[in-house]
Write a structure and sequence with these properties.
about 200 residues; mainly alpha
Amino acid sequence: MKDEQLILRLIQSHKELEHYDYSNAVDWAIELIRQGKETKNVLMLASFSKPIDRIEISTYVTNVLNDLGLEELDYKSAMIAGTHYHLNEILNNREIRKNLRTLYQLCLDNDYELGLMTFYLIYHGWDELEEMGVNYYSESANIENIEEELKKEARKWIEKYVYEKKEESVEQQRKEEKEKTLPTTMIISNKGFIAKLKSWFS
């Protein structure tokens, strides 16, 4: 999935993520203006500067999504979209510790759901390694390999939560196609057999 798609799905998640960083939405609005997609709501959204009031800006994000014919995501889809965005940032070496902290916060905010506990543990383990040289959160991680451990877990999470449904869909499609093929084959065989019977008794 391209960065642009990930950002868009992150924007669509804004109401469901408790500590959502609305500076992403402002940057997105500025990019829309560069692309010539100017509406009153886009211009208003692009005009916000820090500190950003969540309640005030949220309405404009919703309005811009409506202008573009885009729906906001439900809770589960928003959690997957938000996590996927931050893991992609980590895998692309962009502000790794900042994005890990966001995942840690997502874990706290959402009762340790959707496999986020792994990133909660890595977050604490990394801090312990820097402070004490040991960690009690992630057994296989040390100061030399913890970043690679994080990326390995990021890839595993994306495979499980982002691509799993797609794989199931493909497998189901194959199964349905196989089931469709079998009756057709049987009909053709039976027709041949019936033709032979007719020739024998004619």
